[in-house]
């Protein structure tokens, strides 16, 4: 398996790594199991102290790790710095709130009495080593939003990161070690995808979390189901961005550009399908296309760059194929749509209209700065288009009509509904999807409890 840093801005291989062999994987599984036996008994105060320290170190490293991230997967460096800061914020948040989120709960006194008990407690206990299979697009954030709650719950982590971000993966292991966590609390496994199945089948691994593609999610879920192990899956998304006549069009169009092109459009929660009421469709389209054209595409190390390269040559080819298929089937290109000359895996911000259900881009996730624009006659048609997808991660609705808001919140098939704003993840709010976008939740109290043994403790009279 090829594990390497390949700079997407020029296609040059920076550094390669040999995958870990069976002996090293076994050593690390033994270490994880042994470490869990003692780490699980540490007090919340001690876990919080260590996690706060890791967050502080990350902020100290912010400039350097941002450049590593940009080199490995092409994210504009200013966005990479913001990702590091967001990770530190989440670590501080869980360090401050985990004890409260996992505090013992006492059921209603009448129910306790009815059960014949003198006292009943619900206690959240750690379950053991958790395998995290993580993607390259937010190489720090995707890991930290698993690692921070898992470590605060008393679990230990095993990271199988994407093979194109090995330096970031190794940095994360080193970060937790420097913060004072015992070596086995968080380990990076430099392995290929083929090694995941055997590790997940190992009895020492108690659960798994995966963020990535639908095929990868199916594989992990299948094995975990066979082994009767808990999983949390965050898979793809094709989020709708609905604009109704009462919306602030200037603001909606401005946010729409960011929502589609953040992280060069390589985000599961990026808005991808822009569904606009016919009364304001043309006015919105004009603003949106102008905003997409104005973005600066170029060197991701340049502070002025808005859109960098796609993370891989394969990723750009996949995106081009979706666009070309749509154009062949009758879609109109309002801007972009052609690969630029020169080195690197760049693709311009692109807007397509005239989308039909037969086009691949209507059904598949476009992982790059390509937006599809739909016209809806009314609220009902907007909902039909929005829900006409196998995905259900998040959604965006722009309206100042309360009745419309209530209807969208009720009927949109998504894990989140953002009203007059752009989808974003925050440590205090649950994050996850429905349909083929996965199951389970990350972040908030819901996320930290996903990998806990929820134990009923019953005391007789």
Automatic annotation (TrEMBL):
<dbReference type="GO" id="GO:0102810">
    <property type="term" value="F:glutarate-semialdehyde dehydrogenase (NADP+) activity"/>
</dbReference>
<dbReference type="InterPro" id="IPR047110">
    <property type="entry name" value="GABD/Sad-like"/>
</dbReference>
<dbReference type="GO" id="GO:0036243">
    <property type="term" value="F:succinate-semialdehyde dehydrogenase (NADP+) activity"/>
</dbReference>
<keyword id="KW-0560">Oxidoreductase</keyword>
<keyword id="KW-0521">NADP</keyword>
<dbReference type="GO" id="GO:0004030">
    <property type="term" value="F:aldehyde dehydrogenase [NAD(P)+] activity"/>
</dbReference>
<protein>
    <submittedName>
        <fullName>Succinate-semialdehyde dehydrogenase/glutarate-semialdehyde dehydrogenase</fullName>
        <ecNumber>1.2.1.16</ecNumber>
        <ecNumber>1.2.1.20</ecNumber>
        <ecNumber>1.2.1.79</ecNumber>
    </submittedName>
</protein>
<comment type="similarity">
    <text>Belongs to the aldehyde dehydrogenase family.</text>
</comment>
<feature type="domain" description="Aldehyde dehydrogenase">
    <location>
        <begin position="3"/>
        <end position="457"/>
    </location>
</feature>
<dbReference type="GO" id="GO:0004777">
    <property type="term" value="F:succinate-semialdehyde dehydrogenase (NAD+) activity"/>
</dbReference>
<dbReference type="InterPro" id="IPR044148">
    <property type="entry name" value="ALDH_GabD1-like"/>
</dbReference>
<dbReference type="InterPro" id="IPR016163">
    <property type="entry name" value="Ald_DH_C"/>
</dbReference>
<dbReference type="InterPro" id="IPR016162">
    <property type="entry name" value="Ald_DH_N"/>
</dbReference>
<dbReference type="InterPro" id="IPR015590">
    <property type="entry name" value="Aldehyde_DH_dom"/>
</dbReference>
<dbReference type="InterPro" id="IPR016161">
    <property type="entry name" value="Ald_DH/histidinol_DH"/>
</dbReference>
<dbReference type="Pfam" id="PF00171">
    <property type="entry name" value="Aldedh"/>
</dbReference>
């Amino acid at each position: 398996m090829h594990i390497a840093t390949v700079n997407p801005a020029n296609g040059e291989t920076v550094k390669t790594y040999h995958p870990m062999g069976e002996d090293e994987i076994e050593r690390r599984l033994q270490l994880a199991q042994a470490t869990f036996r003692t780490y699980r008994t540490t007090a919340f105060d001690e876990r919080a102290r260590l996690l706060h320290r890791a967050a502080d170190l990350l902020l100290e490293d912010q400039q350097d790790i941002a450049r590593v991230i940009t080199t490995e997967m092409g994210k504009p460096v200013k966005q990479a710095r913001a990702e590091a800061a967001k990770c530190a914020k989440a670590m501080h948040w869980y360090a401050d709130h985990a004890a409260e989120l996992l505090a013992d709960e006492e059921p209603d006194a009448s129910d306790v009495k009815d059960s014949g008990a003198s006292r009943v407690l619900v206690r959240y206990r750690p379950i053991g080593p958790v395998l995290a299979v993580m993607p390259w697009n937010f190489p720090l954030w995707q890991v930290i939003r698993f690692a921070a709650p898992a470590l605060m719950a008393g679990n230990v982590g095993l990271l199988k990161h994407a093979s194109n971000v090995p330096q970031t993966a190794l940095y994360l292991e080193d970060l937790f070690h420097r913060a004072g966590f015992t070596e086995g609390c968080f380990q990076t496994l430099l392995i290929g995808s083929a090694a995941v199945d055997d590790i997940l089948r190992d009895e020492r691994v108690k659960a798994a979390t995966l963020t990535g593609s639908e095929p990868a999610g199916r594989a992990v879920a299948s094995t975990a189901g066979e082994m009767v192990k808990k999983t949390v899956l965050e898979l793809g998304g094709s989020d709708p961005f609905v604009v109704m006549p009462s919306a602030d069009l200037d603001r909606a169009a401005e946010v729409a550009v960011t929502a589609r092109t953040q992280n060069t459009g390589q985000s599961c929660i990026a808005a991808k399908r822009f569904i606009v009421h016919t009364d304001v469709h043309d006015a919105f389209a004009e603003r949106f296309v102008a905003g997409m054209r104005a973005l600066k595409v170029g060197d991701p190390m340049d502070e002025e760059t808005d859109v960098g390269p796609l993370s891989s040559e394969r990723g750009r080819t996949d995106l081009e194929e979706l666009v070309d298929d749509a154009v062949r089937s009758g879609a109109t290109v309002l801007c972009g749509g052609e690969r630029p000359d020169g080195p690197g895996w760049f693709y311009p911000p692109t807007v397509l209209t005239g989308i039909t259900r037969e086009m691949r881009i209507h059904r598949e996730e476009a992982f790059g700065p390509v937006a599809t624009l739909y016209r809806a006659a009314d609220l009902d048609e907007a909902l039909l288009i929005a829900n006409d997808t196998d995905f259900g991660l998040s959604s965006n609705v722009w309206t100042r009509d309360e009745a419309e808001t209530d209807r969208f919140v009720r009927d949109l098939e998504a894990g989140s509904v953002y009203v007059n704003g752009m989808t974003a993840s925050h440590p205090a709010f649950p994050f996850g999807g429905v349909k083929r976008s996965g199951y389970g939740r990350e972040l908030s109290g819901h996320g930290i409890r996903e990998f806990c043994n929820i134990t009923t403790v019953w005391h007789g009279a």
